[in-house]
Amino acid sequence: MKYVTPALRQFYRGAATVAVYWSVMVWAENPDQLVAPVTAQDSPNTVQTGIYNPKDQQVAALQARLVPFLNEQGVERYHAAKAAAWLTYAAHEGSEKSATVARKEALAQAEMIIAALEQGQAKQLSLTTPILSTSSVMRRDLWANAELLKQHAGFSCAQSQVAQAEVMLVWAAAEHCELGWRHSRELFLSAQRLIDQADSRAFSCGADVPQQLPKISYPSLQELNGSEQGCHGVAGPWPIWSPQQKTVISENRQVADQPVPNVVHFALDQAVLSQDSINVLNQIVNFLTAHPAYTLTLYGFTDQQANEQYNLKLSLRRAQAVSQYLTQQGVALNRIATEAKGKTQLIENENPKMGRALSRRVELVYVDPEGREIQTIRQNQDIQLER
């Protein structure tokens, strides 16, 4: 899989309100209205509402066949949105000459849906979104939410968001399998936002629709994904829940007794841990020891002083200092990822020295085996003001 490109990064940002169809098409500002791409033959007076990539002939051909169905109503809307999302995924997964397995399978899913739409057989299509062979099941809570929405009276108002979220969950888990949490995080967050939007739209779809979804039980990750390492599609029952399952109960989740700290700070122009920072990290070590399946990403930051290149190197050294201490205390290195952010995401404060001190930091993002970020707290016990 490719690393995040500027165009894909724009896709991530836009998914909070709309899903941007990268190099193929985009969604309209109204997330229920899918819009067709602009081709080279369009009149110069045409309002450009989409992006077209004629070099990817496979995706472009399927996209052209999909255009007539983009603004359908009923279940056709759900399937058209899902086909468009599969094409987005396929477009990201390389070219026709270097097609990945994920691209081939995503294209196959899109073509199957489009063919059914063309033949007027959308109602015969399954509402179950398959897990590709390069992916796995993560975020069971979001998958369960999607399945429950399909049985909800307000589903007709949330079909596009549910379809997009399901494909994005497949994509996110595949990225996580190959590249880790740092490369899948934005996709998971986008899927979460789409499900939140779907809930909101479903609950406001009419005066008499239920305002919440039941809590359901579902299989364990091992039952769903199997015991073999890596991603190989679904090994257990799928979908994660169906109306035939009569048991409706709350899932028991293990949560931390106390929120864990998510930041340590550094002195001016330093990447050395203070004793106060070590005390904070010892709390984190205890948490990670108690939760051996959790992973974390360390993001290093600096204040705004010095140039960009220097600060990128300094922020990396800070993240590496935290990583080194954690591994010395027994945390496996394969549970830790690091990223240098330099002098970005500066923290403002009415006291400029305090703002700079708060900016000189390493932030820790913890993820459970499902791909969920856990509750954390910011601490400032180890703040070091410049003299």
UniProtKB/TrEMBL annotation:
Ordered alphabetically, the record's keywords are: Cell outer membrane, Membrane
Report the residue ranges that make up the OmpA-like domain in this protein. 253-370
Record protein name field: OmpA family protein
| Domain of life where this protein originates | Bacteria
Q: Where in the cell is it found?
A: Cell outer membrane
User: What organism does this protein naturally occur in?
Assistant: Acinetobacter corruptisaponis
Q: Which InterPro entries match?
A: Bact_OuterMem_StrucFunc, OMP_bac, OmpA-like, OmpA-like_sf
Q: What is its main location?
A: membrane
SUPFAM superfamilies given in the database record: OmpA-like (SSF103088)
